[in-house]
Model the fold of this input.
Amino acid sequence: MRWARFESNGQPSYCVIEGDTVIPVRGSPFEAWERTPERLRLADVKLLVPVVPPTFYAAGMNYAEHVMEVAEKLGRKPDLPPNADAGYRTVNALIAQGETIMIPADATDLVQYEAELVVVIGRRCKHLTRENALSAVLGYTIGNDVSERTWQKSDRTLWRAKNTDTFKPMGPWIETDVKLEDLKTTVRLNREEKITFETNKMIHGVIDFLVNMTTCLTLYPGDVLWMGTEGATANMKHGDICEIEITGIGTLTNPVVREGLGQP
Amino acid sequence: MRWARFESNGQPSYCVIEGDTVIPVRGSPFEAWERTPERLRLADVKLLVPVVPPTFYAAGMNYAEHVMEVAEKLGRKPDLPPNADAGYRTVNALIAQGETIMIPADATDLVQYEAELVVVIGRRCKHLTRENALSAVLGYTIGNDVSERTWQKSDRTLWRAKNTDTFKPMGPWIETDVKLEDLKTTVRLNREEKITFETNKMIHGVIDFLVNMTTCLTLYPGDVLWMGTEGATANMKHGDICEIEITGIGTLTNPVVREGLGQP
Done:
């Protein structure tokens, strides 16, 4: 099942997507809901980010090759994370399917995509076990953890490197029927394939994070956890189109514009 | 003017507080609002955290003596922050005036208060200037940035050290009429004064943060920014009462319980 949010008379509304058909619902996937009789064409609606999370968690470094790559770029020793310690990103930076990644005028050319699986929490939970952890997951979507690498090197908290407005594309929708071990992530820049990797080949997996995090914190409906990215990443420049596909979920597509250069 | 939130028939509702009188309002301080004719006694209402922030920012290290103290505790070289780079805390950890700080059973004895001024953003804003930055502030409240010091040393992201459930008391209300340069912060543990400091003697002040942050991110109504703490901090133990007073705002009071030890 595919959950999305779209703009309906200027207001956000949840919907179910079946093929190219959008079925608006009353309510939300996190509470009671029912289908309305209305039917729309997917091409005719403006999708929003599929959820605005109460807390926006991010695994950070969570794939072995990416840890090596980033360490080399930053001139540091690679440091594999010993624990599933979640970090944070911020909602100001979220943009939806099709919206523009805006590179600030003062950013360097080192603005790069990071293709990530996103876990969407479905219910309030604490003290999850390895056995029941996945039952707290509503479904999965796709995130692009856009990063300015020079700011990543200099920022004490990554606030600007990772959380500049428009640096967190997320979508297009939440897919509830997912087999993690079957997923493949592919990044394309202007239709050219840059990398393909097994999505679930993480250092610490979804279950590891959910169990570890909920030892001491409560997760809430709509919280998201971005799972990190693999391998080398490349620069995105004015006029590029960045696509991230995760098989079985969909494709997140966003154009890239550099501030001050006008429309590409 | 004092804005608070309280529980009304199981639902959160904004109110204005005048002396010991609670005046419920329709709406919120972030949009249109009006006073209702109802009047309640402050002693009779359950206060909630005064706002649930879309993003929960924290200055982190932002007072010179505290930087020295923490460096010594962690066995590191003191490192004054060169820029007003904001970090993050999380909403799961928020508790209100009077609610209990719950120390997890597996925490060490090094669970400590940190008394902080909290800035509450009143309107959507970006590219603030030194001249107009404070016009984006609705008002100020008080935060206790409870921290487990051994986890702070070992966590890659401070997720557990700082964001364990109940580790972020905030309140009791938002005071809109504040002269930053007049404020004094005092911490009392079981009525014994532990420290008093000039609240505004920060390394990077409120205006510095708001101007720097909004160079690349949009702040939203209800976002909060915790400004850091000064000096040495002490352990809180089962049965303690922690009070943080900031003159002109109020006093945030929370009891402390260690999990598994029952009621003090």
